[in-house]
Write a structure and sequence with these properties.
three-stranded parallel sheet; 607 residues; alpha/beta; six-stranded mixed sheet; binds beta-D-glucopyranose; TIM Barrel; Rossmann fold
Length: 607
């Protein structure tokens, strides 16, 4: 791990010159919709973020650079007798599968697909490419990688996880951090390992829920990947919404201060999740005190940042929060800003990669296309149905065949993602990829063309529609806590219901089985491509298909799917999640007996 303490002398000098207001400002992270550059200047704000679906102007890189220029200017102009110490702002985004908030960005497969690829070298290249696209917008920090180890696939964030097993997550953690941060020079970003800790272990897979496991299990499954991220020098860690054995992680002094900062020697800073401290206690002031005392250093308080600053100031003035804790938090934030050489960087507009033409370009998309190819898992291939002969008469059907929104999933322009093609600019749908290889193929989303035409084979892309966080949970209780992102992007916001009540696909999406059966009834062998954020119970769909591919959420480059279906590349993906046979089974690697339909590690090839 990089020695961050080497920056303490410089940080301490700055701290000695800072007023309490300046210190509190460094610890505060509002959302861009709720703070102007002028307020950033006046309140000495340390960081601003974009929630899911929050962007400036027309949402092209130049708009982002201009926005960051204005915030940067507001913080470095902060010099002189009246304004206090100039400390450049650190701007944060969720670039979790590419720079997914920005129009025309390259969207990589979500993490679940990357886990199947089993290729840490590829992960490092993806992270480096993502860093380039984020830097093109003048942004310095991404809340990635997610190191969740998901034990129950009912969780709506399963797709953000590389694997149910810590082995792959740990191997990827270091590669991703290295790829993002580089040597912290002009090519690097600040990374953030999240969510500390136990987010993938909640009972029932409930988002922001309760993880009830003994400490050795917490360490073995959920803490283990962080060791790798820390030794790769990850500069920030995000606290998790979940609780561990009844105590919220945001107020968990043992986990945040004793284990992470003490035992594991983490010298960077801990950022809270979106209003994450609110769940510590019913009383907001109490939550603020307990969050900061437990060890949260920077507070993601998107809207109510003024209340937060007021509450924390009162706690310092009353002596409940000692000044040493405030100084420690600010020192940690300054260490990161110094290590990232933020003080030496030019204004965002003048940085090397700002507005760079490589953003969303062919070179970046080629990395994503390779990742798509490597992430596909072949679950069934009867009668050598695959690879498809490009000269065959091919029917393409299914609601996700021509839908770049579906294949990109949540955290794609909108926080919850969105159906359709228009908002994902650039790239190819699965259909467009097939058409590029087999120009005679016919698209018929509902499969109706099967009755009229003559086809040798059908490729059907079916699956889930996009979702994020708690709205992706599969469970019976109706309403979920709000997470991040912009509620105004969600029709019916305020009544955020989970995705469904079962992982059984024919129950939540009967239209998909109907399409498969319609095509099969016409005597055409069906190759099913499942577009989903998790393994689903698909026994009926499997039985009705001659071949079956798990494509996960491939992102913008649907061409990568076609590359493999036509045999230009072989399958390489192997399950990083055990595939369930029934909704009530929660199969995981190493279970005895193993009740999975396809075990961890399963995946066929052409050879
Ligand atoms: C999510 C985080 C994300 C944050 C900022 C939260 O709701 O849990 O993963 O980084 O929002 O958008």
């Amino acid at each position: 791990m990089a020695d961050l303490r080497q920056y303490d002398a410089r940080a301490n000098e700055l701290i000695a010159r800072m007023s309490l207001d300046e210190k509190l400002g460094q610890m505060t992270q509002p959302e861009r919709m709720h703070i102007s550059p002028e307020d950033v200047r006046r309140h000495h704000i340390g960081s601003v973020l974009s929630g899911g679906g929050s962007w400036p102007g027309a949402n092209v890189p130049a708009d982002w650079v201009a926005m960051n220029d204005a915030y940067w200017e507001a913080t470095v102009a902060n010099d002189g007798d009246d304004d206090g110490v100039a400390i450049p702002i650190l701007y944060g985004v969720d670039a979790v599968h590419g720079h997914n908030n920005v129009r025309g960005a390259t969207l990589f497969p979500h993490n679940i697909g990357l886990g199947a690829a089993r290729d840490p070298g590829l992960i490092e290249r993806i992270a480096r490419t993502t860093a380039r696209e984020v830097l093109a917008t003048g942004v310095e920090w991404t809340f990635a990688p997610t190191l969740a180890v998901v034990r129950d696939d009912h969780w709506g964030r399963t797709y953000e996880s590389y694997s149910e097993d810590p082995e792959i997550v740990a191997a990827y953690a270091a590669a991703f951090v290295r790829g993002l941060q580089g040597d912290l020079g002009e090519d690097g970003l600040v990374a953030c390992a999240k969510h500390w800790v136990g987010d993938g272990g909640t009972t029932g897979g409930v988002d922001q829920g309760e993880t009830t496991i003994p400490e050795d299990e917490l360490r073995r499954f959920h803490i283990a990947p962080y060791l790798q991220a820390l030794s790769a020098g990850v500069l920030t860690v995000m606290a998790s919404y979940n609780s561990w054995n009844g105590e919220k992680c945001h107020g968990h002094e043992y986990l945040l201060s004793d284990v992470l900062k003490g035992e594991l020697g983490f010298d960077g800073f801990v950022v809270s999740d979106w209003d994450g401290i609110d769940q510590i206690d019913d009383d907001y002031d109490e939550s603020v005190a307990r969050g900061v005392l437990a060890g949260v250093d920077m507070f993601m308080v998107p809207e109510k940042w003024r209340d937060f600053i007021g509450a924390l100031r009162a706690h310092v003035e009353s002596g409940r929060v000692p000044m040493e804790r405030i100084d420690d938090a600010v020192r940690r934030i300054l260490r990161v800003k110094l290590a990232y050489r933020l003080f030496d960087r030019q204004r965002p507009a003048d940085r090397r990669w700002s507005n760079h033409e490589s953003f969303g370009g062919d070179e970046h998309r080629a990395v994503a296309r390779e990742a798509v190819r490597k992430s596909l898992v072949l679950l069934k291939n009867d009668d050598g149905a695959l690879p498809v002969d490009r000269g065959a008469r091919i029917l393409v059907a299914g609601k996700s065949a021509h839908d770049r929104g579906h294949q990109s999933g949540g955290f794609s322009l909108a926080w919850q993602g969105q159906s359709g093609n228009d908002h994902i600019e650039g790239g190819t749908s699965i259909w467009e990829g097939i058409e590029a290889i087999a120009p005679g193929a016919v698209l018929s989303p509902d499969g109706s063309a099967a009755d009229t035409g003559e086809f040798d084979v059908a490729i059907l892309a079916i699956g889930e529609r996009p979702y994020a966080e708690g709205m992706g949970d599969v469970r019976t209780s109706q309403f979920v806590a709000r997470g991040s992102g912009l509620a105004q992007n969600i029709p019916g916001a305020g009544k955020l219901a989970p995705y469904g009540a079962t992982l059984e696909h024919r129950v939540s999406h009967p239209e998909d089985l109907a399409t498969i059966e319609r095509v099969r009834a016409a005597g055409i062998p069906v190759i099913t491509v499942l577009v989903s954020g998790r393994p689903l119970v698909v026994n009926a769909e499997l039985d009705a298909s001659t071949a079956f591919v798990a494509a996960w959420l491939p992102g913008s480059e649907g061409q990568g799917v076609a590359d493999v279906l036509f045999g230009d590349h072989d399958f390489q993906g192997r399950l990083s999640f055990s595939w369930p046979h029934r909704d009530e089974d929660l199969p995981n690697r190493g279970d005895d007996p193993d009740v999975s339909l396809f075990p961890y590690g399963y995946g066929l090839t052409y050879r």
